[in-house]
Amino acid sequence: MENNDSINKAGIQNHERFMESALKLAANGLLHVAPNPMVGCVIVHQGKIVADGYHVYYGGPHAEVNAVNHLPASFSPAECTVYVTLEPCSHYGKTPPCANLLIEKGFKTVVVACTDPNPQVAGNGIRKLEAAGIQVISGILEQEARALNKRFFTFHQQQRPYVFLKWAQTADGFISRLPLPANREENTISSPQAHKEAHALRASESAILVGKNTVLADNPRLTTRLTDGPNPLRCCIDQNLSIPKHYEMYSSEAPTVIYNALKEAQEGSTVYKQLDFSKPIVPQILHDLWERKQLSVIIEGGTRVLNQFIETGLWDEALVYVNQALYFNTGVAAPDFIPLKQGLNTGAERHHFVNTTVKR
Question: Residue 54: beta bridge partners?
């Protein structure tokens, strides 16, 4: 005869198995749901998944709605268990509350990975379900669920976007030759695969930020042309508005924000946002992006801009591509990044760092 501990362990393992399926579904929404979170939902009857769904695009039906709509009429909701990766919403937004839907359909058990950090929800969905007599089991694969929606949690708990730092450097620590060669290919550092990965990162994040000198040197498009997915909001720090209007930054390919000291206006797809350059600009930029509901931002350079984020500690992950076979001997120095100096002996091109000092 099994004791209670073994029975409880088996139950938790089953919960985790079904929640893992819901998390895999949720991840499908990465490119299209921001500023909403990625959410997956599976409905289980007698140990088998009989319906599932995920949040497909911003403004569309939530995961619970899609799963309920996929539930065959032959299954009674009262005999099923709902697994959802984030607490069902309890407020009216672009769609009605999912908590209400689960109550109205007659479900009796709902398993939740983690609560919603959005102040409009923040436990209210769970309380609403429990008040209706529904058994709620929470905390199943909670850390995995929080990691999946790290951008969403940072946005609501820190009131800023999730910050990625990204750059490429030579083995001797330079990000560019100086002066710039006439043939720009001579200034290329990272591999074609790294370029594709960079564009995939752009597609998965809300915004991208560069400094004026990067734009003047490279005239980048900052789009996702090497991969599938939406273009990020392009952002540039140009204090005195010195970038010529014919540069790619001003194209209509993607919306653009120019952080400057001179004016606040909108001209076509370009927004001019005035900052106080007598004060630290990193907090100002992050607050503006938060107000624009940008869940994440990639900081692509140059060195001065990257160092400003490093010095303030306001970054979450860093992706650094090091060409171990390339030496410039002189040029524009890479950011002063101590974690990279401590981990350079791997021989790998791609280095990934997580800022463990940031409050989570």
Answer: 40
pLDDT computed for residue 238 by the predictor:
98
* Contact (CB, 8 A) for 316 and 150: yes
**b/e 226-260 (16+ beta carbons within 10 angstroms → b):** ebebbbbbbbbbbeeeebeeeebbbbebbbbbbbb
Q: What pTM did the predictor assign? A: 0.92
Cβ atoms of residues 267 and 277 within 8 Å:
no
Q: Do the Cβ atoms of 51 and 71 come closer than 8 Å?
A: yes
Q: What is the Cα–Cα distance from 113 to 86, expressed in whole angstroms? A: 6
CA angle 110, 114, 115 (to 5 degrees): 95
DSSP string, 101-154: HHHHHT--EEEES----STTTTTHHHHHHHHTT-EEEE-TTHHHHHHHTHHHHH
Peptide bond into 37 cis (omega under 30): no
Q: Can you count the helices (H) and strands (E) in the chain?
A: 11, 16
Q: Is the predicted pLDDT of residue 2 greater than 50, yes or no?
A: no
Q: Read off the pLDDT of residues 123-182 as tens digits, 9 standing for 90 and up.
A: 889 999 999 999 999 999 999 999 999 999 999 999 999 999 999 999 999 999 999 888
Q: Which residues participate in catalysis according to the annotation?
A: 64
Q: Could you tell me how far CA 89 lies from the centroid of its own chain?
A: 20
Backbone angles phi, psi at 273, to 5 degrees: -110, 120
CB 238 within 8 A of CB 260: yes
d(CA 175, CA 337): 13
H or E, element range at 340: helix 338-342
3-class DSSP state of 330: coil
- How high is the pLDDT of residue 6? 41
Whether the Cβ atoms of residue 206 and residue 295 lie closer than 8 Å to each other: yes
Are residues 110 and 82 in contact, defined by beta-carbon separation less than 8 angstroms? yes
- pLDDT confidence of 96, banded at 50, 70, 90? confident
Q: In angstroms, rounded to a whole number, what is the distance separating the alpha carbons of residues 250 and 326? A: 33
**Confidence band for 35, pLDDT divided at 50, 70 and 90:** very high
Residues with Cβ within 8 Å of residue 312, at least 6 apart in sequence: 280, 282, 283
pLDDT range class, residue 348, cuts 50, 70, 90: confident
